[in-house]
Amino acid sequence: MTTSFPSDLEIARSVRPRPIREVAADLGLRTDEVEEHGPTKAKVSLAAIRRLEAENPRGRYVLVTAITPTPLGEGKTTTTIGLAQGLARLGRRSAVTIRQPSLGPVFGIKGGAAGGGYSQVIPMEDFNLHLTGDVHAVGAAHNLASAFIDNHLHHGNSRGIDPTAIVWPRVVDISDRAVRRAVIGLGGRENAPPREAEWVITVASEVMAVLALASDLADLRARLGRMVLAFTRDGAPITADDLAVAGAMTVLLRDALKPNLLQTLEGGPAFVHAGPFANIAHGNNSVLADRIALATNEIVCTEAGFGADMGAEKFFDIKCRSSGLRPDAAVVVATIRALKMHGGVGRIVAGKPLDPALTTENVAAVTTGAANLAKQIDNVRIFGVPVVVAINAFPADTTAEHEAVAEVALTAGAEAAVVARHFSDGGAGAEELAAAVWAATEKGSPDFRFLYADEAPLREKVETIATRIYGADGVDWLPAAEKALDRFEGLGYGGLPVCMAKTQNSLSHDGSLRGVPRGFRVPIRDVRLAAGAGFVTPVLGDMRLMPGLPSHPGGERIDIDADGNVVGLF
User: Fold this and answer.
1) Using a CB cutoff of 8 Å and minimum separation of 24, what contacts does 191-197 make?
2) Residue 308 has pLDDT above 90, yes or no
3) Which residue stretches of 479-569 are H helix?
């Protein structure tokens, strides 16, 4: 008789967490440097980061990224957590640094994002829902600036803002397609002038990106002040400092800036802080979380969103530029089911049963689809970073399929390709992967390099990413994008890095193109400025900044049982 594998929530509830003060003490944190939010989570003071960086050597820094994923995801967060647990089992002081999920996917298509199986961060419900309120603080700060803009228009518009050139949206952290574009200010003179406006999901807010990239409170304040909210009729930028709102925004974010400390199922430290999306933002957790983890551990495993063409490229070109930190190695996660999909077999739809073709041995399809893995390995090695491939094992996989993936990975230049079973076995299932990653960090990244120079023109930066990372033949600029790019360069923003907004479902801008697409050009329909975060965002194809809910949202299954417990969260 077979026993069904327990749900993530059941596994998470089966573990009694360590008191968070014990986890903090193991890291060398003093009691006055830890602000407890109940017994299982806490915030760490910024003073602790400065003290521990001065006292301790920096740990090794490992990025976990992936192949182009299926809509189900390939277990990248699960692998990040399992890897840290495996390293701990090998006697290494290890920590996890990951993003806090958005409520949009939790109640939409993806569900929880705290890892899975026996490689999770706990408490799972807190992780996936409000945690310590950081996302709400970001939304409040962002919308305060929105309110200041319309209030300024209402009271005479002394700065001459062009109502048609307001570039600052409003935000909400729920996927809601109905508010992508809307008309606000209806109902008469007392309700501010009517104008067209837009909403984006909170994790796509520039404020979230600023929170993730800020180095301290003063830097946070300066970045918020530089954010461009609108333009005048003469084309001059209007910043948050111009409208005297940046100081109040900083006050709202003062506590949110402190990294959150949680733990893995096996009791190791996990820092969960900031949550920018990787398809429409830069897709990495905070610099501050990485810094405190690196100052208190021998090795830190962090995660970048979606495939290496997305979060990893942004990790290297945006986050590492901002932080000054350099990675020692990277892990590229692959699954047999995803490689079969890239090889032209089966169809994966979130919320639907898995296509039987994806659970039937097909070495030929795996080998064909592994071209995507080879390209993503190359995308990491372009930056001079050694790569280990983690084959995230599923029950239907076969040894022949795993061997086919390993052969492609090693031929493409990976240091090692390891089958990992951390989902079912926790840290014990990732010990071989952990050993391979530690060995790769011994080699390190002495030749680490950015993809493009700071001084390169913005068009050249975009075209370099499109051709070298995506494999495009070139870039096609729509008129609105060209106009925006010319404006930003004319205003002196040409030296900023680029944060591409594109589909996560393909190396190209077209989510229907699997494997390694060839013979395509990337259309850029718009370019947005994030002067406070410190990048410009080209918007590719039909990419949207506010997701919609599926026909059967995940929120339909989430509820409270008779005992007051959350159910349906996975």
Assistant:
1) 192/150, 192/151, 192/153, 192/154, 193/150, 193/153, 193/154, 193/163, 195/150, 195/153, 195/163, 195/164, 195/166, 197/166, 197/169, 197/170
2) yes
3) 479-490
Name which of 202, 64, 76, 184 is nearest 130 in CA terms.
202
Same domain as 364, residue 420: yes
Task: Say how far apart CA 113 and CA 219 lie, in whole Å.
Answer: 29
**How crowded is residue 231: how many other Cβ atoms within 10 Å of its Cβ?**
20
What region does 19 belong to: left with phi over 0, alpha with psi -120 to 50, or beta? beta
Q: Are residues 234 and 260 in the same domain?
A: no
What's the structural domain count of the chain?
Answer: 3
Q: Under a CB-based contact definition with an 8 Å cutoff, are residues 299 and 360 in contact?
A: no
d(CA 422, CA 83) in angstroms, rounded, equals 8
Q: How confident is the model at residue 212 (pLDDT cuts 50, 70, 90)?
A: very high
Q: Other C-beta atoms within 10 Å of 116: how many?
A: 25
In this structure, are residues 252 and 39 in contact, taking their beta carbons and an 8 Å threshold? no
We report the CATH number of the domain holding residue 405 as 3.40.50.300
Domain range holding 274? 8-132+256-443
* DSSP-assigned beta bridge partners for residue 260: 43, 272
**Whole-number pLDDT of residue 3:** 61
Residue with tokens 């809910």: 549
Same domain, 289 and 426: yes
Q: What is the pTM of this model?
A: 0.94
pLDDT in tens, 325-340: 999 999 999 999 999 9
Judged by DSSP in three states, 485 sits in: helix
CATH code at position 230: 3.30.1510.10
| Domain end among 382, 409, 443 | 443
Same domain, 348 and 468: no
Claim to verify: residue 332 and residue 436 sit in the same structural domain = yes
Side chain identity at residue 185, one-letter code: G
At residue 314, what is the residue type?
K
CATH number of the domain within which 479 lies? 3.10.410.10
Q: Which of 471, 473, 468, 464 is nearest to 538 (CA)?
A: 464
